């Protein structure tokens, strides 16, 4: 019926008289939608490609699929209850908003905040892609052994019980850390520190990969891995550039600082690899790029360009040291199998970025973004506002401690709950054979690999007469020749 209500319609008053009301800024709205799409492309296809190509061939599909599933599952949870818990105006506690759906047209087509000149629908989409990439980053620590059914349960539970708490506390104007004055421009704490700590904690509960996989885990396609990394880098233009919620001066500053820090960090990591290992590693360069992007995120629109270079130097060296040196010396780092090293690239780099933000935050730039003044410690010392600078520096450290404690506790509780329902870890057969045992599919059907068609779960009904290129040789399994 033409007049039938759409699915999931939520009754409400739709007081909209024009498609472009007076408060709508078309430039801001277009930029926010573009920035959100760029962040979405970081996940799908960016991290799907990166994960699927940086792992062993037998784990390519499972790794990519974990990212794809999380992207879809987070969206449904987000519009169902997650957005209102994170950014809603009805407070449940000082840590959390009240769960509610973000599906009412009467709410989606009005301003989310008086200072934002685009509709709530744009805000919901923009914040969704941030929530989604956080779960996908967590997956990086669990590649190559987590039970896919357990992952399917983990995603909605962690989004609901952990991500929303961090997002509300830091990004909602009613959140207690927001009121206290902790700076997190675009997710150094909410996204990167959270995903690094949660991924590392979940990796402890899931357990390590097989000994064979831990000893040797070569990428199956380094060039494709670079394509995924490139999408991640360029997508960060929207990641940090969308932080001000407007196409304004601060967005431009955030974008240029983002790329300055990433490039510096990549070069520093590369120089350290060449100095101590004698070779330029492309995987090392990608790690340096990521740590630079993560480090600048809490500060992107709040520091000057020279500070972005210094932050890049720190992000290219300190995470390098923790990954390449300390990781082999500290037993907890050595024993917990963090497949993609998200603890180093996101937890360490995110914490570093938060601390350096407390040091380099420039008051005038902060006034472009925040309604209350923020003074980095450096400017507190030079402008004779030492108390303000020390306070901001201390608040940044306090925010780090809160996010760490939150994610260790909630991630542990979630993993313990899930393992009461399904095993957290794959079976020994699945760990041995990978994608074909888990999904019945394999990433590459290359003739020289001798694909065994009759043993594949999805190809068991192939008929030799239908596929004449397939032949059966005496004493050998059916192969494509």
Verbal overview:
The chain is mainly alpha-helical. It has one domain: Ammonium transporter AmtB like domains (Ammonium transporter fold, Orthogonal Bundle). 63% of the residues lie in helices and 2% in strands. It contains 19 helices and four strands. A two-stranded antiparallel ribbon has the order 1-2. It has a two-stranded antiparallel sheet with strand order 3-4. Strand 3 and strand 4 form a beta hairpin. Helix 1 runs antiparallel to helix 2, helix 7 runs parallel beside helix 17 and helix 9 packs parallel to helix 11. The longest helix is centred in the C-terminal third of the chain and has 33 residues. It is globular. The N and C termini lie far apart (55 Å). The N terminus and C terminus are likely disordered. GO terms for molecular function: ammonium channel activity. Keywords: Ammonia transport, Membrane, Transmembrane, Transmembrane helix, Transport. Its main location: membrane. It is found in: Cell membrane; Membrane. It is a multi-pass membrane protein.
Flag low-confidence runs.
1-11, 450-481
Number of helices: 19
CATH architecture: Orthogonal Bundle
The major β-sheet equals: 2 strands, antiparallel
* Cα-atom radius of gyration: 24 Å
Going by CATH, the homologous superfamily would be Ammonium transporter AmtB like domains
For the record, the count of structural domains works out to 1
The CATH C-level name is: Mainly Alpha
Mean pLDDT over all positions: 89
Largest beta sheet: what is the strand line-up? 1-2
| Residues in β-strands, percent | under 5%
Order of helices and strands: HHEEHHHHHHHHHHHHHHHHHEE
| Termini separation | 55 Å
């Amino acid at each position: 019926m033409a007049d039938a209500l759409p699915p999931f319609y939520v009754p409400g008053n739709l007081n909209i008289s024009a498609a472009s009301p007076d408060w709508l800024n078309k430039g801001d709205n277009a930029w926010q939608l573009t920035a959100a799409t760029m962040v979405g492309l970081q996940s799908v296809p960016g991290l799907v490609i990166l994960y699927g190509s940086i792992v062993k061939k037998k784990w390519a599909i499972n790794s990519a699929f974990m990212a794809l599933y999380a992207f879809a599952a987070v969206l449904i949870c987000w519009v169902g209850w997650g957005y209102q818990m994170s950014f809603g105006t009805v407070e449940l506690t000082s840590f959390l908003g009240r769960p509610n759906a973000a599906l009412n047209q009467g709410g989606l087509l009005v301003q989310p905040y008086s200072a934002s000149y685009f509709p709530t629908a744009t805000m919901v989409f923009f914040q969704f892609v941030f929530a989604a990439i956080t779960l996908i980053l967590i997956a990086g620590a669990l590649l190559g052994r987590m039970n896919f059914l357990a992952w399917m349960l983990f995603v909605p539970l962690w989004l609901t019980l952990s991500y929303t708490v961090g997002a509300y506390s830091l990004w909602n104007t009613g959140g207690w850390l927001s009121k206290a004055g902790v700076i997190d421009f675009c997710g150094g704490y909410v996204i990167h520190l959270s995903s690094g700590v949660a991924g590392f904690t979940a990796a402890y509960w899931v357990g390590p990969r097989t000994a064979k996989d831990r000893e040797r885990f070569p990428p199956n396609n380094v060039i494709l891995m670079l394509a995924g990394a490139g999408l991640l880098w360029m997508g960060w233009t929207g990641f940090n550039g969308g932080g001000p919620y407007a196409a304004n001066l601060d967005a431009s500053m955030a974008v240029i600082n983002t790329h300055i820090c990433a490039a510096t960090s990549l070069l520093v990591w590369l120089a350290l690899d060449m100095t101590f290992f004698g070779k330029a590693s492309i995987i090392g360069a990608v790690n340096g790029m990521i740590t630079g992007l993560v480090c600048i995120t809490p500060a992107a629109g709040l520091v000057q360009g020279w500070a972005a270079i210094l932050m890049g130097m720190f992000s290219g060296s300190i995470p390098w040291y923790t990954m390449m040196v300390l990781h082999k010396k500290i037993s907890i780092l050595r024993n917990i199998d963090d497949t993609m090293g998200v603890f180093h690239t996101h937890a360490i780099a995110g914490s570093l970025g938060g601390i350096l933000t407390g040091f380099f935050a420039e008051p005038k730039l902060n006034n472009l973004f925040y309604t209350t003044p923020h003074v980095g410690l450096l400017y507190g010392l030079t402008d004779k506002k030492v108390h303000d600078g020390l306070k901001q520096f201390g608040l940044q450290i306090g925010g780090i401690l809160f996010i760490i404690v939150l994610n260790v506790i909630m991630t542990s509780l979630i993993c313990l709950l899930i393992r009461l329902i399904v095993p957290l870890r794959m079976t020994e057969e699945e760990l041995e054979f990978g994608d074909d045992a888990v999904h019945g599919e394999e990433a590459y059907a290359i003739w020289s690999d001798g694909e065994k068609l009759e043993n594949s779960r999805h190809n068991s009904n192939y008929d030799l007469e239908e596929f004449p290129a397939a032949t059966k040789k005496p004493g050998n399994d059916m192969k494509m020749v």
